[in-house]
Automatic annotation (TrEMBL):
Entry keywords, A to Z: Disulfide bond, Glycoprotein, Repeat, Signal
InterPro entries hit by this protein: CUB_dom, Sperma_CUB_dom_sf
SUPFAM superfamilies: Spermadhesin, CUB domain
Keyword match Transferase: no
The protein, known as: CUB domain-containing protein
Record organism: Gadus morhua
Length: 134
């Protein structure tokens, strides 16, 4: 059975979190620091994924740093990561990443939302991002 996060492990093993999505990728994360990864990271992620992580440690602002990104396409038409300033994908988008782009994002409040989507063709290694309350 696949559990997102640590290779062959669960990101909830050392932090407070709840499962968010039905396809077993995406979580509510309550810890003041931690990380998220694409499914199967560092192996290739699956096709047709729609994963959402809501990072809500309850403190100040959140810094989210993408340390490694390897996705299909450089123009975000195929696979991509979107980061939103708040508790859902209906909030203001702070940015999006695709290809080999890396970036750091900062929330204006106590919650950030990350969405990872993939199409039905090529797959790559995916991503790893670390977050912390600041």
């Amino acid at each position: 059975m696949y559990l997102p996060g640590i290779v062959m492990g669960n990101p909830c093993s050392n932090v407070l979190c709840d499962r968010l999505s039905v396809n077993n990728c995406g979580w509510w994360l309550y810890s003041t620091e931690g990380y998220i990864t694409s499914p199967n990271y560092p192996q290739q992620y699956p096709n047709n994924m729609d994963c959402v992580w809501v990072i809500s440690p309850g403190y100040e602002v959140i810094e989210l740093e993408f340390l490694h990104v390897e996705l299909e396409g450089s123009d975000c038409r195929f696979d991509g990561i979107q980061v939103y300033d708040g508790p859902s994908i209906n909030q203001r988008q702070l940015g999006r990443l695709c290809g080999n782009q890396r970036s750091t994002f900062h929330s204006t409040g106590k919650t950030l939302t990350v969405r990872f989507t993939t199409d039905s063709s090529q797959t790559y290694q995916g991503f790893r991002a670390e977050y912390r309350s600041t």
